[in-house]
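Lab channel / #folding
Pinned by the channel admin:
"Please post every new chain as: sequence first, then the structure tokens as a reply. Keep commentary short and put observations after the output so the thread stays searchable."

First post following the new format, from NK:
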Amino acid sequence: MASNTDLMSQDVTWKKPLELLNGGETVKICAPMVRYSKLPFRMLVRKYDCDLAFTPMIISNSFNKSVQARDADFSTCKGDRPLIVQFAADNACDLSTAAEIVYPFSDGVDLNCGCPQKWAMAAGYGSCLIYKPELLCDMVKQTRSKISDDNFTISVKMRIHSNLRETVDLCQKAEKAGVSFLSVHGRTKDQRNDPVNIEAIRLIRENIDIPVIANGDIKSLQDVQLTVDKTGVHGVMAARGILTNPAMYSGEDITPLHCIKHWLDISLSLGTPFPIFHHHLIYMLERILCRSERRIFNTLGSMSAILNFLQEQYDIS
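Reply from TO:
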């Protein structure tokens, strides 16, 4: 488990997640994203008014068993706070053990109950857990029993049921089990591009007392305010929107060039693997480059080729 403490030594004072969520201001959050919400990207979005960031989903069983897996899946640094580590788990022992491991380096753990991919559900992870309330609640209870620090949050990120009564019932059970807050993606496990069910998120918010975070179709600061106005949630979480524009929470409509410059500096200093480095830039430049330029940029095969392209097109180096 890597800790890049000397590379990104930003201010090491920070507010804990519940302090943020109960502070009266909308909390702006970077969602857990496989491959993408790793340390370099988290450090980038923190420069642009992102209040709280999640790691990608980590398989708790492998994480607990292998030092190599821990080093590959989780790295952090002084400025990478507040930080929530998201785990996939299908039993209380795996989740609570993983939580103990990351406790000294993070501000909370999150149980993934939202991943709709077939492999995850077949393994007992992700959105299948919303149909197993007893198991979900047991994982929360056992993890809290291992970590008594109330400032260390134990949260759940979930999708909704087709029958919203089931969703509200699950959320109330999770609250009684000791969940610190809930992040709700307003789609069912079978929905992909359907509109987010704002009414479902509002209903959950009105029926539990712990903080609720809305997830889904947050692509601009205007979307943030609209979602909060319609649901009364404590925070919002962006995935695709913040990938395309890491500066969206600061009010930028498209990725500004100085944000791309910050990405170059951060990712190169942290040794970001080339495919991830390139893919992030593909997202960031999606609304900046014309179609012919995108075709060229998306096929560039080396770091030097990308740096030359950005230097020639935008004087970024």
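NK: The chain has a mean pLDDT of 95.
TO: also worth noting, DSSP finds 15 helices and eleven strands in the chain.
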